[in-house]
Amino acid sequence: MKITSIEAVPFTIPYHHPIVAASGVLNSAEHVLVRVHTDEGLVGIGEASSRSFVYGESQTSIVAAIQQWLEPALLGADPLAVEDLYEKTSWLIANNTTRGAIDVALHDLRGKVTGMPSWRLLGGVSTPIRVTRILTMGEAEEAADEARRAVAESGISSFKVKVGTGLRSDVARIAAVREAVGDQATIYVDANHGWRAEEAIRALTAMADYGLDLVEEPSPAEDMIGRQRLAQHVPVTVMADESAPTVADAARELTSGSARALSIKTTRTGFTESARLVAVAGALGARTLLGTQADSMVGTAASLAFGSAFRQVACEPGELDYFNVFTDHLVTDQLVVKEGVLIPSELPGIGVGIDEDKLRHYRIDNR
Ligand SMILES: [Mg+2]
User: Fold this and answer.
1) What's the Cα-to-Cα distance from 303 to each of 108, 127, 182, 234, rounded to whole Å?
2) Which of 126, 134, 273, 344 has its CA at 20 to 30 Å from residue 119's CA atom?
């Protein structure tokens, strides 16, 4: 079997409401569907998401990187040589979600060739994963209402709260969410580098009574000394996300004592590098949680299939329902969170197909 083409389809799906984080505001998903075609007719799919303020990628740059560099490098190659193809394209720096999408598509294809779900090929088991709802960074009561609805509608018991708007409003938001979801629910916070190290220590100390499980990217990773100091001074585990998008970065963050957990995003590290991240974290006693790169149901299905296969990942809650902010979905097999968990699909590969009518409607390349 040979790779005959790699299709990159930019699509835009509006959100129900704007998403505000310390690093930017988003009104719609601006993603690229990646399809690896073969001479035997089988097709693997993956999703790249443009995050200019994290990776410097746009829909246009993702499509260009595939058309100019990655498709020519992979044409004619054996699509089952997944590890080898990941190395073969490793000369391309940055372009994190573009490379991740191609790697996921190759793994999806491997599933379709063998007739097996990706989780079976990776680890053999399909553990359901508890879903984390990411709450809007708005007023305290808004966040609390959103959390209450997630509990009532989907049985969700894990919440990520975005912080970095100011000590008072951050603490008020956490207090309101804890009050809304009760003592047993998991709550963690993500500052997206929005605090200085000293501010982070102050804020997390002020939040100590609300039982936070983790703090994600509290302060800029460039401030290595500040990060190490805060990791030692706060009563919660520090999780590295955008500061550890590669194995080398993760090794540095974990061994320097700046973090004790990693956010694993298959949309940026594919399955190949994500598996290496899980191994590095496991060896160093660090936790691994599935994160989301604002994934649609395509990226989420990939993340779920991956995480389910690894005990160390599946025992943690995962950010697996970002798609709830999408006004529509491209997949034929929709994901539904029930009793707070998602159950991995028994279908081959990542377990979702594409609705071609929907893709025609949302693609922005006028084809
Ligand atoms: Mg994050």
Assistant:
1) 12, 13, 28, 30
2) 134
Could you give the 3-state DSSP secondary structure of residue 325? Answer: helix
pTM for the predicted model, two decimal places: 0.96
Ligand 1 centroid to 81 CA: how many Å? 31
Which residues are identified as catalytic? 162, 190, 216, 241, 265, 293
Find the mean pLDDT for residues 166-178: 95
CA dist 150 to 215, 216, 223, Å? 21, 21, 36
User: How many Å is the Cα radius of gyration of the chain?
Assistant: 20
| Residue range 238-248, pLDDT digits in tens | 999 999 999 99
- Concatenating the DSSP letter of every residue in 184-239 gives TSEEEEE-TT-S-HHHHHHHHHHTGGG-EEEEES-S-TT-HHHHHHHHHHSSSEEE
220 in the same domain as 259:
yes
**What CATH number does the domain containing 254 carry?**
3.20.20.120
Q: Which two tokens stand for residue 157?
A: 């018991």
CA of 266 to the centre of ligand 1 (A): 13
Sign of torsion over alpha carbons 216, 12, 359, 74: negative
Structural domain count, the chain: 2
